[in-house]
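chain below, 473 aa
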Amino acid sequence: MSDAIFQGTFFEKFLSITHYQTLIGIGLLLFCFFAIMRPLQTKKVNFSIRMLVGLVLGAVLGLGIQAAAGFPNSSTIWMQETATWYGLFGRAFIAFIRMLVIPLIFVSIVKVIIDFSGKENLPQIAFRGIFWLLFTTAIACIIGIILANVLSLGELSSTSAKTAVAKQYTNIIDTFVNLIPSNIIASMVKENIVGLVIFSALMGLAANRMEKKNPQPIALFKTFIEALYKIIMSIAMTVIKYMPYAVIALLARTIISNGIPAIVEVSSFVLAIYLATILMLAVHILIVMVHGISPITFIKKALGTWLLAFTSRSSVGTLPMTISTLTVRMGVNTGTANLVGSLGSTMGMNGCAGFFPALLAVMVAHMVGINTDIQFYIMLVIVVVIGSIGIAGIPGTATVAATVVLSGMGMAEYFPLIGMVLAVDPIIDMARTLANVSGAMTAAIATDHEVQLMNMDIYNDPNVTLDNEQSEV
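prediction:
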């Protein structure tokens, strides 16, 4: 049979179907959807179990297609076409989730400020939340430093490095000033989450301040915000119920697009990333235990959100699920979940802005022969923590965080050396994002428990699931 059964621009450029293998790949994905996942959903199998099934199916499907192609060094045409079609389901799901992020953050923060009107613990929640986010990022950086030395990163062949261009960044003072939005619409477009949080908080504070002078219009405004919040969360839960399907497509597409050989080439760095993620999850569990909260329950109830973070590679995209899990399943106060969860999607990300840039900085230092003494490591921790503020939690921004750290450590000229790592960025980004989201959830739980707002009855109830928020997620 001819390699290409469909010829012409219509098939090649528009449909992206030129080989029969592409049709088989699409058929296998649809089989997973309708023959396996749909019956599980119909039988109302637990959401976390469906997520695990989707993860396994995605891995098997991706590796199976790689095996059928003979594990090529680069994707063949039909594999690229299959990955494109898988993107219809995976990328579309992420697009729907990200569509809700900006309105969700805006409404959530305004609602938080309004709900805490007259209460003295709002500043306490904000400061404690930020502390836990930045503290866990500092721990993540230290773990990255230790692993980079234990695994001797930097011994990788620099001949495989690819050309890359470092971006130019302003000094730390300008960085802080730039977080203040001069144009709120532009901030929404650029996903400047910190800027949006600042604007939303000011609007909430202004509403509370004007309530005594203008009780009727402010009451209407508060009612509108409450209704809008419920509507947006309802939309989010409707989208989230299709997450197990998206997991299959997302993971399979990642494996098909990057392949096994590319992963083997930087296996030491990939190993370091996944070890760092495991260690950070252990740190998060330890923090939960220190607060007298059951770690087993934490793991069980966080599992679905962790899997979405792992497969979606987007801290911001996971935000609706993060907030829902914290409030519905873990009993975290709505205000704390919204405020700390939103901040955690862009500030103090343990993976993308914590151990990842730390690993890269030490690796590059080893490769070029820079002396890595105690002063180097202290400076690295400071630069990583400061640089973790205001990094948007979307796929690919870890590269920006790495650039900020390398520039802050005076190693910007060596940025091209990390090209070999960027080649498999989607593989390591899955683990990084998992650490990001877990860190945000841990910070929210620790904060809420410390200010004594957390509903432990909900947390300890094993029967409370996201299905309770909306029928059959």
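The longest helix spans residues 77-115. The two ends are 44 Å apart (CA to CA).
thats it, cya
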